[in-house]
Design a protein that fits this description.
The protein folds into 2 domains: 65 residues, no CATH class; 190 residues, no CATH class. The protein is globular, with a radius of gyration of 19 Å. A two-stranded antiparallel sheet has the order 1-2. The chain has 10 helices and 2 strands, in the order ααααβααααβαα.
Amino acid sequence: MWVLLYLVGALALLLSLQTVVLLAFREPLQWTYGATSQQPKSLKLVLKLLLQSTLIGSIFLFPYLVGSTPARYYGPILPLQQARFFLYGEGIALILMALIFWIEIAAGWVKWKVRWPARKTAAKSLLSALSSLTVVSVEEPFFRGIILQYLLFGAAPGAAAVGLSPWVALPLGAAVFSAAHFIRKVRTYWPAVGLAFLGLWLGVAYYRTGSLWLPAGLHSGGILAIGIHRAFTEYDGRERLVGTQTFPIAGAICIAVMLVGTTITWFLFGH
């Protein structure tokens, strides 16, 4: 369980560095992480870079703490022979999200609406495509490759050790993944439920395939679909049914689909 202390340490470091930055910009201190709408753009950029730098640094530091190197640690959970699983996951997520959006639009819970001019829509869609790769390249090694790996096995990939039962480790890893998205101040915490179910599916994908490729593909496809759909939809339905513009996975429809996907993944894959 010491790996959870590593997560707490990374969070404490992040908040400490934010305090230094806020003092440098002469802004009020805060307990949550992230910029507010009232803060200058330069501060927002610094805080974004700080978050990514802390996460990337944590990913590269951890292997050395367990007597390994990044190449030796992550190599076994990124086997080239399973690289195709990334494309499988990406395609599955895109198809399922398209189906969910179609159902919700057909039912009138979500309205089709072109929100931005063509140039802005294209720019934001390209940005979503880029972030769908950059986000998973950081979050999957951290949450599945480090946190869940040690909850499940208590050791580096390939080592002969046993951690918690998967029936405990997988929900716990999903809860950690969900909670990590709320270190910043948010309007509602209901999306935490959808994020937990997403974390459970990604965790099962990692556990059953033994690699990061499938969860990374599922995660990437979801980010891409959500990012693009924001340009063409407006939410009118109940939040607990369809989620929100930012977190459509928080809706009951999407949660049900993720539960089915988790079940299929469990029985379809095995290592």
